[in-house]
Design goal:
Strands 1, 2, 3, 4, 5, 6, 7, 10 and 11 form a 9-stranded mixed beta sheet that branches. The chain has 459 residues and is α/β, with parallel strands linked by helices. Helices cover 42% and strands 12% of the residues. A hairpin with a 4-residue loop joins strand 1 (108-114) and strand 2.
């Protein structure tokens, strides 16, 4: 179908503005400081309305705002500053086992799993160091990370503070999952990461394809049902997957940290501002399909943001809520591994959840929803379909601005059975993953939950 003159003009304008935005961001001089670009991005109106200025000027503002604000936004998730990192997933240039887990001599093996839609995922199996095994060997446990993280998130602290090491020392057969697009799972049977189709997915596919493939592999190797531990996005994909009988039948129990299904009451001010600005839609409209904050240009921006311009600890608070128990002296080490890439579509899906207050499949718009789903609105994930017989444990905190208490209560009302609950009034979103006292405050209780299920199954 031919493009009309107006469409062609808009396309040319969009491309020109994208290039112009990148040129502006490349300027690192006193005459064009980064702070001005940041000020521009944060001074735009909350909703995109036509401005009384030429179209090219508007498009340029949107392009600059989109690119800079995205970079600004994701410094909050311990955004990285390594320039030029290339997420190839090639084990010949290093891997999660040799790069991180084996630094403390923990046995670690790397495995590959293929999803039904062709993505190649990395799974890593971790055992206890000889002589440190505290208990008789337990069942397999699959760890599922949060947004813009990967399997390394469970091993970024000391042996006594990182849940991956702790579970191994308690005898569990630890399997570390990393979803598509991350450094340890960056592959596809036919697509390249440069193809926009490679990034055509959201957390829906992570639940229905990635988690399903991981569970089938671990179930096949261990010949037993699998325990799941998820944090943040890892809980979203877990709870969505548990509504599918073919997936949940492979699960022996689940421990969910900062569980999320609904995001209607997110209170983090910067998140709400970006949602109101429709940043996710602007990014997609600009043709940005991959969100990779270790690319050269965005890495420089992130480096500048945290180098004398902004306190990144305060930025983290503005997106997750206050965290009580982080060791901020280890941030540089965290930045060696985080963030990992994700897709713009995934961000868009999460922002849809905030705007609509639903736990549903991706919303393509009314006409495409009809073609894809046979209805105007995307189908919801029905939490009442999660079997009553599935044991669940959930840890949540009062200072979590992402997994809000009202949304969490909404989740509990829809479940057919009440999970075991651990409530920590002083904990925030990141404390459950990286808190220096989480081993005592959180993980001991979680391991006791798993052990209780082993006792029931043996009896």
């Amino acid at each position: 179908m031919r493009m009309d003159k107006e469409s062609k003009s808009l396309t040319r304008m969009r491309c020109t503005c994208c290039h112009r935005a990148l040129e502006i961001l490349r300027v690192r001089s006193p005459t064009a400081p980064l702070s001005l670009a940041l000020s521009l991005s944060l001074s735009l109106p909350f909703s995109w309305r036509p401005l009384p200025s030429p179209a090219s000027s508007v498009m340029e503002k949107l392009a600059v705002a989109a690119i800079v604000t995205v970079a600004f936004f994701f410094t909050l998730s311990f955004s990285g500053v390594e320039s030029g990192s290339n997420f190839t997933g090639d084990s010949s240039i290093g891997g999660l086992c040799p790069d991180l887990i084996q630094r403390f001599d923990y046995p670690c093996s790397e495995h590959k799993v293929q999803t039904k839609d062709g993505y190649v995922l990395g799974l890593h199996r971790v055992s206890s160091v000889a002589g440190m095994l505290r208990e008789q060997r337990g069942p397999p446990v699959l760890l599922l990370h949060g947004l813009f993280m990967a399997g390394d998130a469970w091993f970024l602290g000391s042996m006594n503070q990182s849940l991956g090491y702790i579970l191994a020392d308690h005898g569990f057969d630890v399997w570390v999952g990393s979803v598509r697009g991350t450094r340890w799972s960056h592959g596809h049977v036919s697509l390249s990461e440069k193809d926009k189709e490679f990034w055509d997915w959201s957390w829906e596919e992570l639940a229905l394809y990635d988690l399903a493939a991981m569970l089938r592999y671990v179930n096949l190797v261990s010949n037993t049902e699998v325990f799941i531990v998820g944090h943040s996005q890892g809980t979203i994909i877990s709870l969505a997957a548990f509504t599918e009988p073919d997936i949940v039948k492979m699960v022996a129990g689940a421990a969910l940290l900062c569980p999320i299904t609904y995001l209607e009451h997110v209170s983090a001010p910067l998140v709400l501002r970006l949602v109101s600005m429709h940043l996710d839609q602007v990014v997609l409209a600009l043709g940005i399909h991959q969100l990779n904050f270790k690319s050269d240009i965005l890495a420089e921006i992130l480096d500048s943001v945290c180098d004398g311009h902004v306190d990144c600890k305060d930025l983290l608070t503005s997106i997750t809520g206050p965290n009580c128990c982080l060791n901020m002296s280890q941030v540089d080490f965290f930045l060696e591994y985080e963030p990992h890439p994700s897709s713009s579509k995934n961000l868009n899906h999460l922002f849809q959840m905030i705007r609509k207050g639903t736990f549903a499949r991706y919303d393509y718009g009314r006409s495409k929803n009809i073609r894809r789903y046979g209805q105007f609105k995307p189908p919801t994930f029905d939490l009442s379909r999660i079997p009553k017989s599935l044991p669940m444990w959930m840890g949540y905190g009062a200072n979590d601005d992402l997994a809000d208490l009202m949304d969490f209560q909404h989740t509990l009302r829809e479940l057919e059975s009440l999970p075991e609950l651990l409530y920590l009034e002083n904990y925030g979103h990141v404390d459950f993953l990286m808190g220096v006292t989480a081993n005592r405050d959180v993980y001991d209780d979680m391991i006791e939950f798993f052990r209780s299920l082993l006792g029931k199954s043996s009896s």
